[in-house]
């Protein structure tokens, strides 16, 4: 027997899922609806299938092809010009139907016993048998009434409430004899229920209804789609799963990694080639497609996630549908009944309200709340550049193809033939991205001096000495271990200006990319003696005699993250004993917890060896934590104060540049040495620029960001800082432990509040309007200060997250605690008021 699979529907009520997908190809349990129908037909020995297609026909043809992979023989009939209706499309292939045949809808999920229905048809001598089902609410279906012999007596298509005369409905599955097709006109739209069956009834042709037992769901709208999915997982319908049952009620595909800490409550389905991160909660009813990545601590309550989706850390998904290739970023929420179309992006901390639909290829901005369907248009491109360069998830945001285009955009803002450097950290992912950037630069005629695996301080040092126009450096993000950071440097080795960033963004988004001729393609050179160049500059700005006479012993911990070759080589030249720990490189970055464990280990080694001090180097040679001779760590504000004190002791009346949120201990120390303090914006680029432009600047930075020695190069440098510490301790003849006891006693505390992006500007305006102008400083954020003391509060919006940081600073502990509590309360109350207004 042959079957006609009606698969031409566009599925308007299923949009946005069917915007680029015919309704029968929408997946249930990671298989198209039509595939479940094919499996049902094969189970009942119906292996010759003719599929009638109209909407996006190639999708189904490409998937099933000749049907051999599915154990059937598939042929296709495409309605090219206009849809012919359920009956018209069958009439169109009448020459292929020379015996009893079955017609079945390609957009329903069922496990009906088709063999019994066919036997019933033959037993009754029926010309047309309709497979019927009993449903609680027949309003959306065609109602059928039969006599005691199951002969059909009456039809009513989609009745109103008052017209309902039966709960037995037409399921769209028919067993027909070929002669009934003679009642249908040629090449004309017509329908079985509206045209053919009433005519057969009028002609008194034998027509019967077979009331089938089993499951049937017409996947006609989004609620029905979700219900069919959940019913399939709960085995309310007999379906064939694509994967093996890993444990009772949990099906898992091949090559899928699930972290041991993941909690899965059955029933749940997880596809092949997935990556499920630590502590993910997978609730009953969850379905995850193939090639899906789920970030750590995500909370999944019955979502349906299609192939290729990326779900960020701490995302919350609630009985929603996430279509193919969609990305849901960190801490975003997609709530009950919401549907996000394919290739869309839901930004960090964004919220999609219940039952909201998002059409394909849309972008929901970070922190936004979407309460209405997003159909037309698209949100604006996100900025490429963030707080410091271009950053994004490794091999998800920052991919080889992205990096090629980014390199071409950077190169297109430079003159053809210009030279730039390319450098990176030692990890494989950084090598991949760096090579892609180099390819993009070459394609627009830029020559590249490839420094290869080089710490960022070295790259900044050699750029002005090589006379190049700038450089690009690729490394793991110092604050996010799953992300890549690409930094662009100018001819001085400083991160490029905002104006330059805008030019690169313009070239990238407008695709205004220059294409070089074959003879103009850029070259790649590998300069030698890069480390020697840095060593020469390094040595030039140190008191070498003091280093040689210091007899210091330093313990250096690289935390498996920075090449251990350079700093010991530099220190050895000055006769300094450097004990190196954890210098091998891990491709998998160390977590914050790992680094704390290594720091404790470092403290024990420093104490055991009676070393002068210890350092833990991080961020590709930019940042460090210092440990005194007892192994006690010095970091953050204390490290800032210590370095300022050391340097101003050696350079009285010097100028130091610190971020706006640094402790007022810096000013107290500067007053001791007749020095000057400049406060810059709390981002690395602003600090570098301020150090470069400030005459007599002897130090910049902070314990959190790292330290800048402007006389050496304009960037942060943990290696030079280590050598400088040895020099200062020798010249000042004091230990770090003794020096820390002399630091001013300042109480500096911070608290972070979650704040939607949309509320940040209003919050800053509110603070400015509610304080006297004479008590305000607006370098970065809003600082409220007392002109007669060092008491101040700073409310600083985070540049990259939906957060606000509150800093309180005073020599009086009680004042600090009270101010922090007061402003935390004020900020939280304001955010709640804004949220209430938005909801109204």
TrEMBL record:
It is found in: Cytoplasm, Cytosol. The keyword Phosphoprotein applies. Residues 251-352 form the EIF2B subunit epsilon/gamma LbH domain. It holds the Pfam family PGM_PMM_II. Residues 383-513, 533-631, 636-744 form the Alpha-D-phosphohexomutase alpha/beta/alpha domain. Residues 3-231 form the Nucleotidyl transferase domain. GO terms for cellular component: carboxysome. The keyword GTP-binding does not apply. Belongs to the phosphohexose mutase family. This is Mannose-1-phosphate guanylyltransferase. It comes from Desertifilum tharense IPPAS B-1220.
């Amino acid at each position: 027997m042959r079957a006609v699979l009606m698969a031409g529907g566009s599925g308007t009520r299923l949009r946005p899922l069917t915007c680029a997908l015919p309704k029968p190809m929408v997946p249930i349990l990671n298989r198209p609806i039509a595939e479940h129908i094919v499996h049902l037909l094969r189970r009942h020995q119906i292996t010759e299938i003719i599929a009638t297609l109209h909407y996006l026909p190639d999708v189904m043809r490409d998937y099933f092809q000749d049907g051999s992979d599915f154990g059937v023989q598939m042929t296709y009939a495409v309605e090219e010009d206009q849809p012919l209706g359920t009956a018209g499309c069958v009439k169109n292939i009448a020459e292929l139907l020379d015996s009893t045949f079955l017609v079945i809808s390609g957009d329903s999920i069922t496990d009906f016993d088709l063999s019994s229905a066919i036997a019933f048809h033959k037993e009754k001598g029926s010309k047309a048998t309709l497979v019927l089902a009993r449903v609680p609410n027949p309003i959306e279906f065609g109602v059928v009434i039969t006599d005691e012999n199951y002969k059909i007596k009456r039809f009513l298509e989609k009745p109103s409430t008052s017209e309902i005369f039966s709960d037995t409905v037409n399921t769209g599955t028919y067993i027909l004899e070929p002669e009934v097709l003679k009642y249908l006109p040629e090449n004309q739209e017509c329908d079985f229920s509206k045209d053919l069956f009433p005519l057969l009834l009028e002609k008194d042709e034998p027509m019967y209804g077979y009331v089938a037992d089993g499951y049937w769901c017409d996947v006609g709208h989004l609620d029905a789609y979700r219900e069919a999915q959940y019913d399939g997982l709960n085995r309310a319908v007999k379906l064939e799963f694509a994967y093996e049952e890993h444990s009772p009620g949990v099906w898992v595909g091949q090559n899928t990694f699930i972290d041991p800490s993941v909690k899965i409550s059955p029933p749940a389905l997880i596809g092949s080639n997935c990556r499920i991160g630590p502590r993910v909660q997978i609730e009953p009813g969850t379905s995850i497609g193939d090639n899906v990545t789920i970030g750590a601590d995500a909370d999944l309550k019955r979502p349906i996630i299609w192939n290729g989706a990326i779900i960020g850390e701490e995302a919350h998904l609630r009985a929603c549908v996430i279509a193919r290739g969609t990305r849901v970023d960190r801490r975003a929420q997609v709530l009950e009944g919401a549907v996000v179309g394919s290739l869309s992006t839901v930004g960090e901390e964004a919220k999609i309200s219940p039952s909201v639909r998002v059409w394909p290829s849309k972008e929901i901005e970070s922190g936004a709340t979407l309460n209405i369907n997003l159909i037309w248009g698209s949100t604006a491109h996100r900025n490429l550049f963030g707080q410091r360069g271009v950053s994004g998830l490794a091999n998800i945001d920052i991919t080889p193809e992205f990096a090629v285009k980014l390199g071409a955009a950077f190169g297109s803002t430079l003159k053809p033939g210009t030279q730039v450097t390319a450098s990176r950290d030692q990890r494989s992912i950084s090598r991949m991205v760096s090579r892609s950037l180099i390819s993009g630069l070459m394609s627009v005629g830029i020559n590249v001096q490839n420094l290869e695996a080089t710490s960022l301080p070295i790259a900044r040092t050699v750029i002005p000495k090589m006379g190049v126009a700038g450089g690009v450096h690729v490394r793991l993000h110092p604050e996010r271990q799953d992300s890549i950071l690409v930094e662009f440097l100018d001819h001085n080795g400083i991160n490029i200006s905002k104006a330059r960033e805008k030019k690169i963004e313009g070239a990238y988004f407008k695709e205004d990319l220059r294409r070089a001729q074959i003879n103009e393609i850029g070259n790649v050179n590998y300069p030698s003696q890069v480390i020697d160049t840095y060593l020469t500059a390094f040595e030039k700005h140190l008191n070498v005699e003091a280093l040689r006479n210091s007899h210091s012993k330093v313990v250096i911990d690289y935390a498996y993250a920075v090449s251990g070759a350079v700093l010991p080589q530099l220190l050895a030249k000055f006769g300094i004993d450097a004990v190196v720990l954890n210098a091998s490189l891990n491709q998998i970055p160390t977590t914050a917890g790992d680094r704390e464990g290594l720091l404790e280990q470092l403290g024990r080694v420093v104490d055991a060896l009676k070393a002068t001090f210890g350092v833990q180097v991080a961020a590709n040679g930019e940042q460090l934590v210092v440990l005194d001779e007892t192994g006690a760590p010095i970091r953050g504000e204390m490290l800032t104060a210590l370095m300022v004190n050391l340097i101003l002791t050696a350079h009285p009346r010097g100028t130091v540049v610190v971020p706006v949120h640094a402790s007022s201990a810096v000013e107290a120390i500067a007053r001791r040495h007749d020095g000057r303090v400049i406060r810059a914006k709390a981002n690395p680029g602003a600090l570098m620029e301020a150090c470069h432009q400030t005459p007599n600047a002897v130090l910049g930075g902070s314990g959190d960001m790292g330290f800048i020695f402007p006389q050496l190069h304009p960037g942060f440098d943990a290696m030079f800082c280590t050598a400088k510490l040895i020099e200062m301790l020798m010249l000042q003849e004091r230990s770090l432990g003794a020096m820390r006891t002399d630091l001013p006693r300042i109480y500096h505390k911070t608290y972070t509040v979650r704040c939607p992006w949309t509320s940040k500007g209003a919050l800053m305006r509110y603070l400015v309007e509610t304080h006297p102008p004479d008590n305000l400083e607006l370098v970065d954020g809003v600082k409220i200060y007392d002109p007669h003391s060092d008491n101040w509060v700073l409310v600083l919006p985070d540049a990259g997250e939906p957060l606000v940081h509150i800093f309180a600073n005073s020599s009086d502990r009680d004042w600090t605690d009270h101010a922090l509590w007061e402003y935390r309360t004020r900020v939280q109350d304001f955010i709640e008021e804004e949220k209430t207004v938005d909801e109204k």
